[in-house]
Specification:
10% of the residues lie in helices and 40% in strands. By secondary structure, the protein is mainly beta. The protein has a three-stranded antiparallel beta sheet, with no helix packed on it. Strands 3-5-6 form a three-stranded antiparallel beta sheet, with no helix packed on it.
């Protein structure tokens, strides 16, 4: 297993037709905290929340990952998680 994942996001508010308006990136896989799930995303959608976030928030050069709604399979659980297990299929707004 690799220690990076693929993500799509933005670093600066640019017109959507600008070549750098959305960026494909490899980022570190986060480590789940005690109450968190790590989900291998299998489907994601761009939701009005993503559009509003991108329009109203300039991340100042840091990569802001988009994809508010997603579905996938739990790949790790935090130490205090009791209702989910690795392998569970989930969907969520993130």
């Amino acid at each position: 297993m690799t220690d990076t994942m693929h993500a799509v996001g933005y670093r600066k508010n640019l017109p959507i037709d600008h070549p750098d308006s959305l960026i494909d990136a490899e980022i570190a896989i986060p480590v789940p905290g005690p109450h968190d799930l790590l989900v291998r995303i299998e489907a994601v959608s761009v939701n009005p929340v993503d559009v509003k976030m991108r329009a109203g928030s300039d991340p100042g050069g840091e990569l802001k990952v988009l994809g508010y709604d997603a579905a996938g399979t739990v790949s790790a659980v935090g130490s205090d998680v009791t209702r989910f297990r690795v392998g569970d299929e989930v969907w969520f707004p993130s």
